[in-house]
Design a protein that fits this description.
- This is Corrinoid adenosyltransferase.
- Its EC number is 2.5.1.17.
- This protein is mainly α and 192 residues long.
- The protein has five helices and two strands, in the order ββααααα.
- Helix 1 runs antiparallel to helix 2 and helix 3 runs parallel beside helix 5.
Length: 192
């Protein structure tokens, strides 16, 4: 199998059901999701299976779901079958809640970093937000764009934040609060 086709040499690429310019907003949206998927792979490479088996399982699922989201955005056929479901969104919410309960309480914004794994997850979080902005642009400019990818990306960035905090706390690395931040997080853990 040849990896190159030469079909994009004139600045166009194939969607599922059409050809468009490579700088088309739809291509930008699913291309940014592809970039995010690569950063997720980089985070996976930083996580030790002994401490983070659950996160590794989450991230593999997320990588598949990101391919689903990109595929859904690339498909412009009239009779498309969407791959990313609302269940993926609710599953992320459950994992966010679980991870948030595990991490220590914070009141202020934190500086991205700590361990290499946490830093990689924070990078994934910010690329996820950029992907989300690209999907919003697509939704605002084109019709018939599936809405689940947008909700999924919105939750996913929160997941990366929660996972980054756990990546630090499980190995006893403290998150550093942004010293000029107001108190922006409510104490969600019940006090006796």
């Amino acid at each position: 199998m040849k990896l190159y086709t030469k079909t994009g040499d004139q600045g166009e690429t194939a969607l599922i059901g059409a050809r468009v310019a490579k700088d088309n907003i739809r291509v930008e949206a699913y291309g940014t999701i592809d970039e995010l998927n690569c950063f997720v792979g980089s985070a996976v490479a930083e996580l030790d299976a002994n401490h983070f088996a659950d996160l590794l399982e989450d991230l593999e699922t997320i990588q598949h779901e990101l391919f689903d989201a990109g595929s859904d955005l690339a498909n412009v056929t009239a009779k498309r079958v969407l791959k990313l479901s609302e269940t993926a969104v609710t599953n992320l919410e459950d994992r966010i809640d679980t991870l948030s309960e595990e991490a220590p309480e914070i009141e202020r914004f934190i500086l991205p970093g700590g361990t290499k794994a946490a830093a990689a997850l924070h990078i994934a979080r910010t690329v996820c937000r950029r992907a989300e902005r690209s999907v919003v642009t697509l939704i605002n400019k084109e019709k018939d764009v599936p809405d689940v990818p947008l909700r999924y990306l919105n939750r996913l960035s929160d997941y990366f934040f929660a996972a980054a905090r756990v990546a630090n706390s499980r190995v006893d690395v403290r998150d550093v609060e942004y010293v000029r931040s107001a108190k922006v997080f409510r104490n969600s853990k019940k006090q006796p």
